[in-house]
Input
Amino acid sequence: MRSSKPLAILMSIVTALAVLTGAIAVPILCRPFYYAHIGPLHLAERTGYTQEEIKTAFDEMMDYCTGGEEFSTGVLKWSESGKSHFTDVRFLFKLDLQILACSLGVLAAAAFLSFRGRQRPARLLGRGPAFWAGAGLGAVFLVVGALAALDFERAFVVFHSLFFPGKTNWLFDPAQDQIINILPQEFFRNCAILILALLVVGCAALIIFDMTRKRTRKEPHSKLQKF
Output
């Protein structure tokens, strides 16, 4: 079986993308994560909405952001400016899910080719694509996480400036776009923590997988030496 350096680089990038977009997809798709905040953050008491109204508003907003055609926030008021922001969010959410699906598809195709014995990724500096994906992605986001931990509010503003350049419609008027009343900054902070934790676990798993796989490959040779 031939080994390929370009394939190794491609696999490293695609694996990193799969882990990154997968971690981001968890708070997007796992709505119970938001529901679990309603009680501890006292959202019903702070806003005057019932728990059912809060869940309905969140669900309808997320339905739109993940591909639904109509924007709605239950009994909560919303403005065209607010809707336009969620249209931007919708684009980013769908992009994340599409990249995740494509990344998994590429990884599945590469695994199939390797299984058929046609081509496999080369080991760069003695390490496989899983190691470089985990090490590279982990290093970047540990730095990003550390910076965000120092000043989350500043990081929150920088994030919106990067992903919504030239726009200010993410600065909601709570009277006009009441959805913001049930989306406190603590929730977004916890989403960031969850994503970072999933990234750390995912990157550690990739590194351990690569190192364990290397030892497993060497084991038959070392046993022969003993005889």
Notes: Residues 128 and 213 are 9 Å apart (CA to CA). The beta strands are 2-4, 119-121. The chain has one domain: 2-221.
